[in-house]
Design brief:
alpha+beta; 211 residues
């Protein structure tokens, strides 16, 4: 029987373009929910990943970019830290960006996999952006990439312009609905402003490191 008190190994991976005026102190404060969760007293101490071959958390000041390739041990409550981090980074982002978060079941091993046991692995896509339009643009680009990659197995890329156009129509409708709800003074119950993408439990395990 697996022990559900066993923590996950949680890998956070992505790149966030930042506004030019953003400095290290702002980054440290924005990422405080993450490094504090890991038990550190500052970003300087907490930027190192649990795995030596991962670059961890890096702030490229000349390039105005935050790069994340960082693993920490934790539980489901780490999702609260991710929510806070997303809200904080929204205020610093220059454009939209996607962050991949993978929860690896630390109690799941090769023997479990061979016996067809189901792991508690989970995968999330988080979206960062200065406004809903920037977040939607990232979501749209990722969806177009996924759909085109899948359909190019059967169709020539030049034949897929109509499919891309339909995807654009769907996002245009979603954006119009969001603007309408904000104009009416109501907060949308779901959508890109929440910062979260799809995820799911079980199934085939994702590669442990997303380099």
């Amino acid at each position: 029987m697996p022990s559900y008190d066993t923590p996950f190994e949680i890998h956070v991976h992505g790149q966030v373009p930042l506004r030019q005026e953003v400095g290290f102190e702002q980054i440290q404060e924005a990422l405080k929910p993450m490094w504090k969760y890991a038990g550190f007293r500052s970003l300087v101490d907490g930027a190192k990943s649990s795995y030596e071959d991962e670059p961890g958390i890096q702030f490229d000041a000349p390039g105005h970019t935050l790069q994340l390739c960082w693993t920490v041990s934790g539980g489901d409550d780490f999702r609260h830290a991710l929510d806070e981090m997303c809200m904080n980074l929204n205020d610093l982002a220059q454009t939209g960006a996607a962050i991949e978060v993978t929860f690896y079941d630390a109690d799941f091993d090769e023997e479990d996999e061979e016996s067809d046991a189901e792991s508690r692995d989970d995968f999330l896509m988080l979206f960062i952006g200065p406004n809903p339009a920037a977040i939607m643009q990232v979501q749209r680009d990722l969806l177009v990439q996924d759909v085109v990659n899948m359909m190019e197995r059967h169709f020539d890329g030049a034949e897929l312009s109509g499919v891309v156009a339909e995807i654009d129509k769907l996002f245009a409708l979603r954006f119009d609905a969001l603007v309408s709800s904000l104009d009416m003074g109501r907060t949308p119950r779901s959508g890109p402003g929440s910062g979260h993408g799809g995820g799911g439990h079980g199934g085939g395990r994702k590669p442990r490191h997303l380099h």
